[in-house]
Amino acid sequence: MKKIKFHSIYYRFILFIFAIFLTSINSIDRVNKVTFDFKGLKVEYLNICFFVISIVLIWYFEFFTWKLYICKEGIYLKKIDLFVPFEEINSVSHVWFSSIGSVKHRSSYSRKSLVIYRKNDKPIVVYNISLLALYFIKKYNSKVEINIMSATLATLFNVLVNTWFLYRTFTDFNGMINYTELFIYIIIFIIKLLIPFIMIRIQNKIHGDYLEHDVPWYGWGNDKVIKL
């Protein structure tokens, strides 16, 4: 039986934080001709350390933290040792859960997650799963309803914004931005904050009020879904 495993993508957030730090250091070092010495490590060695850390993180999450696999018959969830046949699945969605202000998750990281809506049981939320899972579900069973269009647009927006931010940090880090650029940053930041709430609202309107964000005004203490 051919199956495709999907692992946690949380390491991408960790690598992005490292990348912001490193691009800032490299840009300042290049533009302002300042030689950094971080506890005896120069910028060149920091770059090497970042590369090694990236390889280790990718290797670890790729081989030791897989959470589910998809095959022609359905979806297997490793943590609860449960196989869900496609015949029991009504719909599958890929959404973002906001963690702003959460006690458990102190960062503003939006967890990209897979929601499996079952016909006769609670939905299952699998945190930190790649959007590619939707495409493989569609490949193996075209009858299952998925939100592939909205999820793809949200992911593309996120990738473009992160890439642009890293590019600007690396190429033009001089500590000064004009009002127009500041306004653009604010608008983009607001959009990124709103996307998780819009996605969850749409899915709750379609499937019922099952999903809630991990934020103080929601509480995220309900038992409407199984969380993995």
From TrEMBL:
It comes from the Bacteria. The chain crosses the membrane at residues 9-25, 45-69, 146-167, 182-200. Keywords: Membrane, Transmembrane, Transmembrane helix. The keyword Transmembrane applies. This is Uncharacterized protein. It comes from Parvimonas micra ATCC 33270.
